[in-house]
């Protein structure tokens, strides 16, 4: 069989398995199996597909047919133009989270001196490590309760040649010191909604990175309650949220004494990030 025939077969198999972007996924799997580029493919598409590559391609297709996420099969994915290792122990970085990253970048770029950042529920550490690559002089710590997730984060840090530190902790339990910016993409899906998620997410991503308790808000409550004393006066907390949670999370920040609380919508018009600033000493005295 030729390259093109294997590509057609792969697409048909994934379509039959109900994969939404069957053709695109088939291409990425064929590319990984053969090591061939898109431009090279068009030159050799009528040539015989190497036997070894065909065997590998079939194994990759079988995994995708079982609804294993494409990123986990490939072992990496892109976020903010950088490549991150991913596996079943971390949440796959998503484009939605790039809005949180962009707002964090703007926040840091407005500062006159380098800040110290804490990334809570860091997972693959795509948020923290991207910030460290893009903001000169920045220092930061990634925190997660999962030791397996932190192994991925550490490896990503090595690959990206950053000097992040990592801490295994149940939120702020072992965190010391204060930070100019705390960012977090915590678990925020309501428990009863977990069974309704796509198979790729429900069956193959870590439940601990998804389940935000009965109403999906428990981690935000704890982040504000336990974390506000770890924010320097004048520093910020920025959270990714579920698209129906803005009002509730903004209220938590306001009740926690934060000022300038705001919500930012993503490109689809969905409320995606909430932020708030801890008062400076003189502002607290004025209240």
Outline the structure in words.
This protein is α/β, with parallel strands linked by helices and 287 residues long. It is 42% helix and 18% strand. It has helices spanning 3-16, 22-34, 38-44, 51-65, 70-74, 97-109, 126-134, 147-159, 199-204, 218-227, 246-255, 281-286; strands spanning 76-79, 82-85, 116-120, 139-144, 165-168, 179-184, 231-240, 259-265, 271-277. The protein has a seven-stranded mixed sheet, with helices on both faces. Helix 8 links the parallel strand 4 and strand 5. Helix 1 packs parallel to helix 4 (51-65), helix 2 (22-34) runs antiparallel to helix 4 and helix 6 (97-109) packs parallel to helix 7 (126-134). The relative contact order is 0.10.
Largest sheet: spatial strand order? 5-4-3-6-7-9-8
| End-to-end C-alpha gap | 75 Å
Order of helices and strands: HHHHHEEHEHEHEEHHEHEEH
Which spans have pLDDT < 50 for at least 5 consecutive residues?
Answer: none
Write down the overall mean pLDDT.
Answer: 95
Query: Nearest-angstrom radius of gyration?
Result: 21 Å
Q: Number of DSSP helices? A: 12
Assembly classification: single chain
Structural class category: alpha/beta
Number of strands: 9
Shape: elongated
Please describe the biggest sheet, giving its number of strands, its sense, and whether it closes into a barrel: 7 strands, mixed
Please give the share of residues in helix: 40-55%
State which percent range the strand residues make up. 15-25%
